[in-house]
Amino acid sequence: MNFDYTEEQQMVRDSIARFVQDDYDWDTRRAIVDGAEGMSRDNWQTFAELGWLSIPFAEADGGFGGSVIDLSVVMEELGKGLVVEPFFPTVVLFGGLVSRAGDEAQRTSILESVIGGETLGAFAYVERQSRYALNDCQTSATSSGDGYTLNGEKVVVFNGENADKLVVLARTSGEQFDEHGLSLFLVDANAQGVSKVLYPMMDAQRVANITFDNVQLGADALLGDAGSALEVVNEVIRDALLALASEAVGIMGTLNAKTLEYTKTREQFGVAIGSFQALQHRMVDTMMAFEQSKSLLFKALCEYEIDPASADTTIHALKVLIDRNSKLVYGEAIQMHGGMGITDELDIGHYAKRLMMINATLGDGSFHRSKFIEQTYAA
Amino acid sequence: MDIALAAEDLAFRDEVCNFLDTEFDAEMQAHLKSKGTTGMVAWQRKLHAKGWVAPNWPEEHGGTGWTATQKYIWESERSLRGIPDVVPFGLVMVANVIMGFGSDEQKEYFLPRILNSDDWWCQGYSEPGSGSDLASLKTKAERDGDDFIINGAKIWTTYAQHADWIFCLVRTDNSGKKQEGITFILVDMKSEGIKVNPIIGIDNEHNLNEVEFNNVRVPAKNVVGEVGKGWTVAKALLAHERTGIAGVADIKRTMRLIKDAAAKETNGGQRMLDDAGFQQRMADIEVELMALEFTELRTLATMAAGGFPGPESSLLKIKGTELQQATQELRMELAAYYQGVLPTNMDPSVLGHEFGSDARRAFMYGRAATIYGGSNEVQKNIISKYVLGLE
């Protein structure tokens, strides 16, 4: 039993921390967010050169062959720096799907360019009515000739603005809510019949609603087996939930540290506000919220390492706890920063907004509590 | 990072299960049920015969020498079977102080007797005027030749009515800071001038007492550590008390009791286990409990590697006691009207309910958990100062 990171994991951690410290200060980040693309292509190339984009992919596909713990280390550090470059949508979601569902030709043609930083990707899975239910899918792919014709609309597609390629979840058979009959398709973002409505989110993500109007796809666009996409999607979502939880833990730790530092320097009534017991006890509460979240993340990671599916109940619990604890942490961070806490200028509110979006991604606390209950108390 | 159990740990677990299943037999269970806490002596002697009564002692003094993983396995399997933990005042608390600060003579005399449960111990810290502000204690010990003469009173003294010995913090000097001039001393409860006054608790039981000291003569050789350095000794004990106090395994057992009972309790024909509101209450506790288990494991792993427990260890007492109380409360609610049943020997078939009175007793007694061992508010003061660096 041990909870230490390996030397290699420490090196990756240090490398990202150094990047954030040297090349990603708050003004730099603000300029990137306000820029035309809402991300820095130069930074993305740096990520590729430093090998970060290769971490979760198999060595046979040109990747680093990293474990879920390696991925967790990367996400936690990116969280601390509030890095906006689309690592999660491109590497974890899009890359994860291609890596798990793709045949050799698809993996060869796509993963190499993801790892090299040439291709940005997105996973289009949310629909207006679907909320967090992946099976609720109206977008359809019907056979035509050797290939398929794609029709429908996906909304809030993360990295939808900048993605070169999309993986689209579409129905090839069955009714709107059926678990079966769903398939994944690789679609060029600029293919004939694809149109996008772009908008920014509060956490600086550039997203899109993407409409598919009789988009013609070849047979080679099908990713994985037709009709049984949910299986592989759920595997990728398992990774994605751990990645998001890791990012959230990174952010919570950073918010706590920034708030603690502030209360030691900010003076009111002639003393540092950190000397007030009313604030001290609440900062102990936020410290505990952070440590407890980290502990449950460790449990999920350790279980995943033994058998990924065995971690599912813990992952649901983790999403519940992160939802609950992050609200406490960002709420207190804003409150204790006083007037400055509610400005756009200060970074605190931006960290808070990212936590809110993490909570709203792939199921919030209530959603996962229901799943946890289903798995734990089923008759 | 991994939690896989090694082959030798799996073998150890088999040995533990086998021992507990054989030795904690129907006879022992009946004995504990009829005798209550005093019945623990028999169980502790069985553990001692096996060499397992002191998992936290070093081997040289008769401890098990177990690894952190082995302690975790032991604790989990013990709790799983509903076997009470050893009475802590001797085996955990005073033993730790004697091993750390005691004279050779004290070690040779007391430690074997503690291992064999020959003496029943109680703790004399709090006073009528000194609760969370422990250092303000006033019970006075004045030197008289080779002895000290003690005058004053201790309160909330659990099991003083059974005790052979009490370990006390007493004031030997009033001149300096209040933390200075405190001395840690061992007092024979049969000494002349000691009077034990029972206090009936909110749980309607007699576990608590007030202990009066009227010119009680105690040999100076019973001082542990140096005269005037009792605060340092007490702090070491409190730190020790805190790491063992999360009680995750016992909270898990209460959750299992709740789930089992919720499968039988019905409301309008529906099992409470299927009640959406009740399920959410259980889930909210369980999620936090899963995290706490790993917070405890993180602490154990750090200590096993020879390190000093990090910030995560300081929350064990606070979170552990909060969760204990949350489960006790939920079990009360599950019992509905029967949560109010006073201590009774009435057969459940006559009474109409299995666990209502037990739930009440656990809930009421459980109120103490956030108060003793340094109240949770004091814990937060300590964390603010020593972990967060706030003054």
- End-to-end Cα distance of chain B, whole Å, is 35 Å
CATH superfamily of the largest domain in chain B: Butyryl-CoA Dehydrogenase, subunit A, domain 3
The poorly predicted ranges of chain A are none
Chain pair with largest interface: A-B, 42 and 47 residues
- Helical content band of chain B: 40-55%
Characterize the biggest β-sheet of chain A.
4 strands, mixed
**Oligomeric grouping of the chains:** heterodimer
Arrangement of strands in the largest sheet of chain A:
1-4-5-8
Protein model, in words:
The complex is a heterodimer of chains A (379) and B (391). Chain A has helices spanning 7-23, 26-34, 41-49, 68-81, 87-101, 104-115, 229-265, 277-306, 312-336, 338-341, 348-359, 365-377, and strands at 121-124, 140-144, 147-158, 165-171, 182-188, 194-200, 206-217, 222-223, 267-268, 271-272. Chain A is an alpha+beta fold and 379 residues long. Chain A has a four-stranded mixed sheet with strand order 1-4-5-8, covered by helices on one side. In chain A, helix 5 (87-101) packs antiparallel against helix 6, helix 5 (87-101) packs antiparallel against helix 7 and helix 9 packs antiparallel against helix 12 (365-377). The longest helix of chain A is centred in the middle third of the chain and has 37 residues, at 229-265. Chain A is globular and about 80 Å long. Chain B has 391 residues and is of the alpha+beta class. Chain B folds into three domains: 7-86, no CATH class; 121-229, Butyryl-CoA Dehydrogenase, subunit A, domain 2 (Beta Barrel); 244-386, Butyryl-CoA Dehydrogenase, subunit A, domain 3 (Up-down Bundle). Chain B contains 13 helices and ten strands. Chain B has a four-stranded mixed sheet with strand order 1-4-5-8. Chain B is globular. Classes of the chains: A alpha+beta (379), B alpha+beta (391). The A-B interface holds A 1-5, 69, 260, 263-264, 274-275, 277, 280-281, 283-284, 287-288, 291-296, 298-299, 301-303, 305-306, 314, 317, 320-321, 324, 369, 372-373, 376-377, 379 and B 1-5, 68-69, 72, 259, 271, 273-274, 279-280, 282-284, 286-288, 290-295, 297-298, 300-301, 304-305, 311-312, 315, 318-319, 377, 380-381, 383-384, 387-391.
